[in-house]
Amino acid sequence: MERLDHLEHLDRHLVDELAQVARETVRDELREQTRKQRRTAMLYAASGAVALYAGAAVALAIGLALALGLPDWAAALITAAILAAVAYALRGAARPSASRPSAAQEAETAAQPDRATAGAAPVAAPPNGLGTPYPPMPPVAPGTPGTPESGAAPRKDDIDPEQPHHRA
User: Fold this and answer.
1) Positive/negative CA dihedral, 160, 161, 164, 168
2) Residues 6 or more apart in contact with residue 145 via CB below 8 angstroms
3) Burial class of 83 by CB neighbour count within 10 A (0 to 12, 13 to 18, 19+)
4) For the purposes of burial, counting CB atoms within 10 Å of the CB of 76, is it exposed (0-12), middle (13-18) or buried (19 or more)?
5) For 65-83, what is each residue's pLDDT tens digit?
6) Cα angle for residues 141, 147, 151 (degrees, 5° grid)
7) How far apart are alpha carbons 32 and 139 in whole angstroms?
8) What is the pLDDT at residue 57?
């Protein structure tokens, strides 16, 4: 029995040692990956700062060019308006297209303001702008008795006035 207890102690010691080696290996690997990512992040930050100064130089050049024919304050105001328009356009381009209504959807909403929200369930979009966090569920499972087949016209007795009406 003593011999088995001694072997159990050795096994426990071996497991502890292996766990320590694995921990150190993972820690070293993570440290190396973090060092590479930190260098990449610093290069991106430096690139952004240089691009900011380049943009300021372009804005200054535009302002000085406009100041040749206009008063200084008017040239500065026009330059600021141009930069604001570019910023607005870039902001619009950064938004996902699914969250922006199309021109047809806006026209339909304007033509029928009371139908825009009457039967539609509210859509909760996450703050990251990637759409709904989960796919929408149909109100009734397909193949349930009493539901029309897909593609078939609904009968008058199939329409439930309490159910929301979705347009395709």
Assistant:
1) positive
2) none
3) middle
4) middle
5) 989 999 988 988 998 999 8
6) 100
7) 51
8) 92
pLDDT in tens, 39-63: 888 888 889 899 999 989 999 999 9
Residues 6 or more apart from 117 whose CB is under 8 A from it? none
d(CA 115, CA 107): 13
User: Could you tell me the two tokens for 74?
Assistant: 């008017």
DSSP 45-69: HHHHHHHHHHHHHHHHHHHHHHHTT
Tell me how long the chain is. Answer: 168
Token look-up 């193949």 returns 143
Structure tokens at 79: 């330059």
